[in-house]
Write a structure and sequence with these properties.
Largest sheet: none
Oligomer: single chain
Protein name: CsbD family protein
Family: Belongs to the UPF0337 (CsbD) family.
Radius of gyration: 14 Å
Organism: Salicibibacter cibi
Strand content: under 5%
Order of helices and strands: HH
Number of helices: 2
InterPro entries: CsbD (IPR008462), YjbJ_sf (IPR036629)
Helix content: over 70%
Shape: elongated
Number of domains: 1
Pfam families: CsbD
Distance between the termini: 16 Å
Length: about 60
C-alpha cells in the first residue's frame, strides 16, 4: 500500500469517527450516518490498498 493510499484511508476513518461522535453528542442522526459512511470509505480504501500489495507480492 502506498503512503498516499494509507493516508487517504486514515483521514477518511478519522473524519468519519469525528462526524459520528459529534453527531452522537448533538443527537444529529444525519451527521452520524455521514460519519459511518466515511469510516466505511476508509475501510474500503484500506482493503483496496492491501489487495494491491498482495497482488504486487504475488507477481515477484
Amino acid at each position: 500500500m502506498s503512503i498516499s493510499e494509507k493516508m487517504k484511508s486514515v483521514v477518511s476513518k478519522a473524519k468519519g469517527e469525528t462526524k459520528d461522535q459529534i453527531g452522537n453528542a448533538m443527537d444529529n442522526t444525519k451527521m452520524q450516518a455521514e460519519g459511518k459512511k466515511d469510516k466505511m470509505k476508509g475501510d474500503a480504501q484500506n482493503a483496496v490498498g492491501e489487495a494491491r500489495n498482495k497482488d504486487k507480492q504475488n507477481e515477484k
